[in-house]
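step=predict obj=Peptide-N-glycosidase F, N terminal n=580
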Amino acid sequence: MKRTISIFLTGILTIVAVLAVETSKMQLSTDRKDTFEGEKEYKTIRITYPMGSREGASGAKTVMEISGNWAKITTVSHRRDTDAPVQPTYLDYNTGREIKTALLKGEESIYTIRSFTINEGLEFLDETEVIAGYKCKKAKTIINSNTLEIWYTTELGMYGSVQPGVAIPEGIVLKVVRNGNPTAVASKVELLNEETVLEPTLRGVELKAPAFNYKIQQSRVIAVNVFDHESIYFRDIPKVTQLDEEKVLRFANGSILMRKVKLPEENMGYSIFTELSHYSEGDAYDRTGSIFIIPTERERSFFDGLLHGKESLPVYHDKDGNPYEGMVVTDDYLPPFELMRFYTSFGVRGYNHIEVADYNWPDSVVFKQEVTDYASILKGDVWVGAWIGNYSHDGHNVTLDIKYYPQRESAPKEVYPLFATVNIMEMAGQAYPENMFRNDSLTVNFKIDRDLKDGYIRYISTGHGGWGGGDEFNPKLNEIFLDGKRIIAYTPWREDCGSYRELNPASGNFANGLSSSDLSRSGWCPGTVSYPVYIRVGDMKAGEHQLKVTIPVGDPAGNSLSYWCISGVLVGDVDGNPAD
């Protein structure tokens, strides 16, 4: 009987103990709930994520506001980016939508909507860290081969992420580290009593995400069209005898286009590119082409030759007395600035009817090259030209734009065109530089107005002619001497021409399996631009200097000759000391 009573009392005590524990748990829960509700008197959370290595370092920041099940993300850019589109992003956690909006120049509004889901491939880890005053837990995931470490807090009673793809289902993301590099770290969390309506009012045109992103990216690019689907050919055309600044001018039987354009006056904060689209209108062959600027600040210019004939240009003579018109700087003349040298493909578009197994010919070839070095001359009113050496009645078609892409501020550079042996006026009788280097060197005497720091020569060199035995297909050493000192010795050579076979529908195919466009060449390939070489010369004093270029040009073979098209421009930072 005593044993029964003992068991009964033990059971009662156990139940009481359990009830006491549960009551205690309930009280703790109630206390936590009361505390949580007290904390949740705020209705909006505002979080700041500085951009840069430290807070305020760049003046840019991302701000996320969270209210209810909506979040709004806005990036405040650098002070010089005041022309950037206003483009907040909204996250609707009720329906899993990401809404991006943008207000472009001219008050044009666009938006895009896509679905997003909470990342399900999360690995939750035991590490913790205090960020902006809140204890954060760590999760890890891999997205597009990038390892992401995500730090989130559950102490704020809401959820959201400055990067929708790394959202956490139970908290707010305060830090994201991608491949070991922090990409977003909260510096400040503000708790606001006011309820904020974050759902956007959508205006303007809805675009798919790729089109939306592209339009945003291009909205700050300044694009100046120079030529729009203009033909370059060789025909009998009326001779231009005076400049007309209102239209496209044709010289040298239509092989040269010239147009005066208005370029941005303020361009120091931009990366500058030339972008040329080309296709054949009848010429099946690979031809030398050049995009250039004619400087007009000295007494004579290349326009003298275009308007009045090659005889009006200053003449350089080699040691045998052979004349070369308008190719070298003189006291009263500057040769053309070559912005880009390109090589047309074998008949793209015009000969796309030629079928070759496994190749789908493109509609055109696009050549794009950076020319930011020349920012000091790519401003204001500028004469821009395009030339393709051809003797075809139905030759080529080109569209040319000069584009300015925003970047960090940069100091202006001095530029001095020294030589350009590309015979742009070939179709008007300008000499090939055939004998210029044979048993001799190109010698250029020039003067710079100010001391230069960190100077370099932007040098383009391509060999031509002679069929298999000529300089087009045989490597030749280029040596350059400045004030008697050799500053470079290198061999322009391209072995990657076969990479561009799909641009060359009319290229001949050989019995050994190669195509003509596959063959390695002296600094160029059909359907590509020629790469400039940057030759460091260091600091240079204002005053007189001399530059020599030597190339062992091959001898003529039958009716074929070898020659080299080279151009060189001296570029440097201004040191401020003028010449005496």
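step=describe
The chain has three helices and 32 strands.
step=end
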